[in-house]
Amino acid sequence: MVKNNPKRLGREDWLDAALKMCEQGIDKVKVAPLAERIGVTTGSFYWHFKNRQELLDALLDYWERELTDVAIASARQAVSTPQDRILFLMEMVMTGNMARYDLTIWAWAQWDTRARRVFQRVLKKRFAFAQSLFEEAGFSREQAKTRGRLMVTYMMGELTLVGDKEARSRQAIRMKHAILTGKESD
To answer: Which CATH number fits domain 11-181: 2.60.120.620, 1.20.1420.30, 1.10.357.10, 1.10.10.10?
Structure first.
């Protein structure tokens, strides 16, 4: 049953709802169930997307932009020391639950070429940015690369595989920051 939704939905609303739905598997993201989930008709969907494939393509772009590019831009703009930028990024990703869809996108990438390309590009961006943060913090290129990869895989894995609230506590994040940077944080 479709509810009367007084709020006009935008493209981003559809993408956000589709991301949430894809936690059950990308094959579950279909137009009618998605419309029902957010309480509108399928006609609203077709105002924003030509078809399901366009939605899926936009979903990958949205995941990359909102859950990677925005995080990188925010960390770059954080006016502080490199150590503080690393902690800022870790806290933003972990407390904001920004890696919650990574496992779903990874699973999708196992059988879909476009999803694989996007996933690999996002992973490359994340690794490169993390490495640059550790290089700014004074680590050698090899140390920075290793520490950056550990940080990225820890954040992705902790949120997607473990997913408990304790892992997202500031105390746990600060302890992992101290391990990765070799320095205690305030």
So the answer is: 1.10.357.10
